[in-house]
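Feature request disguised as a bug: please show the residue count (580) next to Protein NRT1/ PTR FAMILY 6.2-like in the output. Example input:
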Amino acid sequence: MDGKKLSWTVADAVDYKGFPADKSKTGGWIPAALILGIEICERLSTMGIAVNLVTYLGGVMHLPSAASANIVTDFMGTCFLLCLLGGFLADSFLGRYYTILISAIIQTLGTATLAVSTKLPQLRPPPCDGTKTCKEANGFQMGILYLALYLIALGTGGLKSSISGFGTDQFDDTDEKEKAKMAYFFNRFFFFISTGTLMAVTVLVYIQDEVGRSWAYGICSVSMLIAILLFVSGTKRYRYKKSMGSPVVQILQVIAAAIKKRKLELPQNVGLLYEDSSDHASRIEHTKQFQFLDKAAIVAEGDFQAHGAVSALNPWKLSSVTKVEEVKMMARLLPIWATTIIFWTTYAQMITFSVQQASTMERSIGSFQIPAGSLTVFFVAAILITLGVYDRLIMPLWKKWKGKQGFTNIQRMAIGLVLSILGMAAAALAERKRLAVAKAVGGDTTTLPISVFLLIPQFFLVGAGEAFIYTGQLDFFITKSPKGMKTMSTGLFLTTLSLGFFISSFLVSVVKRVTGNDGEGWLADNINYGRLDCFYGLLTILSIINFVAFLVCVIWYMPQKRKDFQKNGIVNGNLAEEKC
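Example output, currently without the count:
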């Protein structure tokens, strides 16, 4: 009886009371679906705000175009940067369940505050009086707006860091049937992300423009509140994984120990370095790269502290070879990590300046007026079409030709970078044509006689690029990182999005200052009088330089993978990839 009971429990998971999780009563698709409901509402709120915020800042708050773009990119960058904080709290203190619950409540408060700020006349400047000069929002009005946005960013960071992990916790990866369900969960997770984004850039943006922003943001608040209630209703059905501690602490411990022992000489025999004798299965053999970190594994006086009759290791003074090698594995990812950031800088232009371009162009289809923010629907369309073509056409042909299951993760990242280059080049050409029309009819014309569909190529190319680089990056950072640092590596991936948005803000500020800070220059307050095509051209050149750097980093990375990873027997599945 006891043996039968044991077979129905999940070894590394507990139920809400702290007892071993019973497979028949916990986990599976129902709890996972309740978790995915939170993800839909998060995407609905975040993307619904981001893609149309620039028009609100310019048209209602009367901010210059460059300042509006920077507020949007800073908001999105902060959302992804706070994923690191959310992951740290989930791993070290709160656990994933409470991180999701608290973060969802915070985001609900943020969207409710945003609904109020867009409703009350006191929280926005008066409408323009028909002259060229409009009164900008004052400090108090912008302060309330910032409060709402960064409450949303804080909530989003906590949700993004934990939802996918808590969803996979509902499946036992040692059970073949549940492992298959877990793989299906990942597909559904990406589908739900796309669904939330699609609803945001169509339905929600339309409500913002035609009904009222306060109504749209109110819908976000109510939907998230309903999702929270559904999420809490599944408390007794969830499986909870015990926290293993934050990998950030391990990395800091290795670095601290190496710095403390920086003056010590490494032994000629690496066998003299400290290794944990209790866990043979997960050991990683020593490699020669980043030898400075090896000093953390030198045994010295004071590394062990006596606790009664037992001597305990001080992890801030001594680390095992395996822990040092795990940190080295993360360090090897950094060059490729750095060269994928620029893609998200180009992506940022699609939800800022490209939306501003759309707002000046002819957007009518019969009697229906397409909201400028809804042009980003071509992002979602590009992602879904690209993934469909890749799955149904490219992968079968590639398997017949090369005998492999599709492109490697590095190849996918490379394709994404190339598509972003083409997207920026297409954006520069489209803007050149738009500016020619603006010059011919007058820059103050509200709607230029040029179709907004001229912008489709740039949206579609960068969107297709996102389909490749997002899946490639996620696969790369998860499969190439140590087993105990999967959450950390996912956070590392999300920081590329964050830094991409922040670099966009930095570039906009620099270009604004260099080319003219008096309302003119490349990024004029009215884009009809600027040279946005030159800014897109600059991004094209930077993307080309970055792509060359990416190839150099890949060449540096690949031999290390061959020599170290395969030699040490830690290659599995996607780790053993062919050259890009």
